[in-house]
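User: Could you walk me through two proteins back to back? I'd like the raw sequence and the structure tokens for each, with a short line separating them so I can tell where one ends and the next begins.

Assistant: Of course. Protein one, sequence then structure:
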Amino acid sequence: MPELPEVEALRRLLNDPVQAFPIAQAGPAHVATLKTIDPPLSALEGRRLAGVERRGKRLLFPTADGKLTLLMHQMAGGRVRYLRAGESGPKLPAFRLRFEGGGELVLTEAGAKKRAGVWLLTPEQAEQELAHLGPEALDVDEARLAEICAADSRRLHALLRDQRGIAGIGRAWANEILHAARLSPFAISTHLEPEELERLATAIHDELERGLALREHGANDKRTYRVHKRLNEPCYRCATPLARVDYEEHTVFYCPACQTGGRVLKDRRLSRLLR
């Protein structure tokens, strides 16, 4: 799933072109993708967008008159692109906006599971839709992080991925951040020492900024991730082969030497198979 670095890089890429022309046609949208019916999509037609904003992993497209906000969440398989006039695109995207200049904003989604979403909301509705999100990850300083960790006793990997606590971090960047901070993904948030909290706060900012800079320059996953999806490759810091723990919906990647004192964490999926 695209996370803060990917979504923010996309926001910056889309910001200027979506403002250039009024919307000529809003939709169609896949029945599973469109999450709201009032206001109708047709209410966007003839209006201009004021650019693109981001909240956590979501893109927001407010109209220039301030009356509507189009919200998009790409989830795991969704991708948003701007097609210039005459540029070929998908015949049946999950969602499409056509602009008067001929350009198009399209949302596509790979796979059978249609989880990506599009909402057309009033500003008040948009505020309610996003009210559950925690502070933006890049806005969390050490003091705020200490409050978040103290408020909920959880494993660090799960806490970082919880959008109610910190918005913008998912599976991949939790792996990168915890490795950079030299902390176990299974460490308990309420047990961190002050020096560990400092390392974690620094890693959140440094890793997300690193990822954003790379994504803005078009870097792919292989160039961007140093730990995520690199099972058995040497740790860039100590050369120990990287390990993983598999769950149903995500995989934790880590370095046993740098993060867990040489201990290999129990792979719960494999353990169930061996019973």
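----
Protein two, same layout:
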Amino acid sequence: MLAVQRHKLIIEELRRLGAVRVSDLTELLAVSEMTVRRDLDSLAADGLLEKVHGGATLRGHLSADEPGFEAKSHRQLREKEAIAQAAARLAEPGQSIGLTAGTTTWRLAHHLAQVPELTVVTNSLQVASVFHRAARPDCTVVLTGGVRTPSDALVGPLAVSAIRSLHLDLLFLGVHGVTADAGLTTPNLLEAETDRALVAASARRAVVADHTKWGVRGLSKIAGLEDVHVFVSDSGLGDDARAAIGEHAERVVIAPLRRRNANGGG
């Protein structure tokens, strides 16, 4: 098969699926992984797709970038703080809770640090640091091992192995994107695998996601909306999105935003 034919098939798969994996393309095209990666490099150079870890997404259709923690921490600050305050009310003293990595769960950790007698399991270095600084003797923090991602998550076989032996009462799940069909997604394949292990280990699951996450579809699926018990977002989430989520989740919580003061502060 000529390169131009392979490129045409890759773009067709992207338009059909929204995202493709290198491993799937090697089977579809009957070529080596190296050949597929060269094809993806060529198409990316032409501006036809975005390369992500383990595959590619269609440029302009899917969000495939994975900004670092510092970059993401400055986005939607008011929304994240409002969501964190609302979500913290879901936790009860004495529970075992999980927190995935992310800047919204990081804000949430500041509020959960005030809840007594929690056992916290997290794969986030930033989240663990919040509880460490709080120095509560009645709080136990379990930090999974693993390989560090740009978002300061610990992922991979070590993290998954540790999580699979645990049982959590409640998981707070941050996500890169949410859509009605794809559910909860992330651009990082290893982070998705680790998050899936946390989902499987939890009795109840609460998603914390600001309105900008709706309509974004990352490369790898974490869970479906049917796996969500409570979805916590902000008032920017549209009615259609609320209805779509409400068809699956038990409850959609909309966190009210604090009004800005006269000087424009939050």
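Residues 60-65, 261-266 have pLDDT under 50 and may be disordered.

Let me know if you want the two compared in more detail.
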